[in-house]
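Morning, I've got a small favour to ask if you have a moment. I've dropped the whole record in just underneath, so have a look.
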Amino acid sequence: MGKNKALLAVGRERVIDTIMNAMSSVVQDVLIASNDREAYLELGKEIVEDRFPGQGPLSGIHAALQAAKTPWIIVAACDMPFVSSDLIHYLTKTVHESQTAPAGGIEYQAVVPLEEGRVQPLLAAYHVSSLPALEESLRSGKLRMTDWLAQLQVRYISEEALFKETGMNPGHVFFNMNSPEDYNLVLKKQEDQEAGR
């Protein structure tokens, strides 16, 4: 993209503001995992830095899990401009339904949505018990999210279940911006949404 995607404006808000607002209405605390503290100081949220810098999204999730004050965290990538509180609420609800096994142990370590059969691990929930496997992945340089998830007990949320529970189009919700062309498409989608098209 060539610039900080989180600080790009979409409609009346920057992407980071949309994500924080969606999170704040549902979760207990909002943390920002970033190695660029200066960019986010004005937001007044706790900023946690990577212990494994330069190792992609896994290192950000690791930092957030290490700093977590609750057993579960919900993560949202900074380049997803259509994150909504409805989705965060549904993830939270699914976590509550999934978190305890009959014996009182942890049945699931992650709750991850699917969209067109693809996992969406950057808008998902993770239990702190997933930390050892995550740390091992980072130490060994295995940085693919799917490799880490393969080591966990994961509850996957189908696209159909997501739509039924929230009414949201998963293709819209999980859209992420990787290029100026993507950003222009997001601006057009937002304009159409605001115009009711």
